[in-house]
Inverse folding.
């Protein structure tokens, strides 16, 4: 692990990198969509979130994450935050290799990791020298297993977390962008005779102005409606539970595990997992727009997955089957919030987290 | 990691599994042939050895081993022994996932692991529940960093080990099959009038017999020469060193790291690695037949690897470039031993191990 200088690294261009929906807002790329056993086409749990500004967040990182990341077409150098759900190997086993690889790149980079108690120790045990010798600042934020709340409140977004219900402590995450001001309509402003300069800035900031001829102009006369931010929730491994509904409330995209088909509810509950029907119920109850189902047991081939998802659309109509390396946009839809109030408190009995 | 029963497992057939040279004696399949950073075509260090009887041994197991193993066409269920060279993540990071996956198969299986101090603790830390709850018997044999000698002496083969020279303790391994009796020539025996029955058995076991008509028959009259067993040595990560020459003596196949091209000897030495020229020198000095070069720095593309190997053939003519999933037979060649005596003590100054 010691043969590389920054100058030596030559990244191969993936021959079949996915087409990325850059410039259309945030999107996710599932890197691994199988449950505990990888198949030839579905790797272990890991999902990249690419922000509008290019920053990349990673949710979980099972074995193989660094290779899938390379294949994704996104850059390791943009990775800024990692969120880990729980300490089962198939959800964190690829993080050490990924971070060691970034350290070998030798370019200064800050990475904040949020996850369960104990994960920092694992990192130092396996790649301590890499962490100590590279110009990478890696900060660990270990969360108590019953912690729920906001862990990041930045200018443009928040991230919050809540316990889920699995066989060991597990937690989900919610990424929520703050709304952005509406679009300034220059043509309308010209027609109203608003001069270039500070007046236009005031309107953009939401303040009314008075023109020299005495006419009042309200912001909404020239500025479009506030643009909602994207909301993404990531819930795995978990039974159908309150924590997941909480995190997914009004989300535009909910990535939720669906280890089993709808007929295996009792088995799912016993093993701390969800069926596709459970995931659809969480999505419906939370008023989430689109369910991105993943973490499928290897007992299902692709046809079986399509069939179990088709049936679950009776519970929640918009379900997308996650595929490794297939980007999924998080489309902010103003109408999503409307359905939340009505559905959020209804629905089947739920497991509490932890 | 808890959703699987033995009955549920459905192994996908790799669509492009390599053609395996079954029935032709032992062979190896490199699963990963890059150095510390995987590329799209070369994974992290791991090599399978398939024995004549179908048992599979694994040398190292970097991240991605379980997936490459699945792709190899060999069966997890045949894995019997694991040999680990050193505690750098790129050489062991995939072992936990591999063994956890075998545990999920839930079929009784015995696995012996030989490797550095501390590796057992890692296993229990990351997949302790899998190990405790599955019917897998996993035995750990932790070796002191300066240990050299025989670690396995079975009816058909031995495995020995010796320290190498790296930046942390590292060791190589030598797998050596015991010779098998020669082939019984039935046609010759018929011509000599040797009756079916115990006489033929005696000849096969190396005993002379006397026929009823008084003629004596020596074993060599009807039994071919003893068939030499395959000898394979695995040496990584290491500088050019005495331990490697010792392990590779008279080997039919020496898999040796070749991180750098021949011009970077000083850098290789500093970082505890070998150039392709170093590897070729070890092969020549040990009288090994074929050098299987691997563990190439990502600074080299395939063309550069071919060129550096081509140059090194001036030092040792038979060098094969290892490729992920490409099987390499270990062909026992009776003539190999002849060259050993002459060359074994010559050659450049070597690093001592550890």
């Amino acid at each position: 692990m010691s043969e590389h200088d920054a100058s030596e690294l030559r990244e191969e261009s993936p021959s079949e990198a996915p087409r990325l929906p850059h410039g259309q807002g945030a999107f996710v790329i599932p890197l691994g969509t199988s449950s505990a056993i990888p198949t030839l086409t579905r790797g272990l749990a890991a999902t990249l979130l690419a922000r509008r500004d290019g920053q990349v967040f990673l949710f979980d990182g099972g074995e193989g994450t660094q290779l899938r990341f390379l294949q994704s077409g996104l850059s390791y150098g943009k990775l800024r935050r990692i969120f880990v759900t729980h300490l089962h190997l198939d959800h964190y086993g690829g993080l050490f290799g990924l971070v060691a690889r970034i350290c070998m790149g030798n370019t200064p980079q800050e990475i904040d990791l949020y996850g369960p108690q104990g994960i920092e120790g694992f990192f130092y045990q396996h790649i301590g020298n890499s962490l100590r010798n590279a110009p990478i600042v890696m900060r660990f934020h270990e969360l108590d297993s019953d912690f729920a709340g906001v862990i990041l409140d930045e200018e443009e977004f928040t991230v919050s977390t809540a316990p889920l219900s699995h066989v060991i402590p597990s937690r989900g995450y919610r990424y929520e962008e703050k709304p952005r001001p509406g679009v300034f309509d220059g043509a309308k402003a010209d027609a109203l005779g608003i001069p270039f300069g500070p007046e236009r800035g005031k309107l953009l900031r939401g303040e009314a102005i008075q023109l020299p001829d005495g006419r009042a102009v309200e912001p909404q006369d020239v500025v479009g409606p506030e643009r909602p931010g994207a909301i993404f929730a990531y819930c795995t491994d978990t039974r159908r539970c309150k924590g997941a509904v909480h995190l997914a409330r009004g989300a535009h995209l909910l990535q939720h595990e669906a280890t089993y088909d709808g007929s295996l509810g009792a088995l799912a509950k016993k093993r701390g997992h969800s069926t596709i029907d459970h995931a659809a119920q969480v999505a419906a109850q939370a008023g989430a727009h689109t369910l991105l189902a993943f973490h499928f047991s290897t007992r299902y081939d692709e046809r079986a997955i399509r069939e179990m998802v088709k049936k679950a659309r009776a519970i929640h109509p918009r379900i997308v089957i996650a595929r490794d390396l297939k980007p999924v946009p998080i489309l902010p839809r103003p109408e999503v919030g409307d359905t939340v109030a009505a559905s959020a408190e209804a629905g089947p009995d739920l497991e509490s987290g932890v």
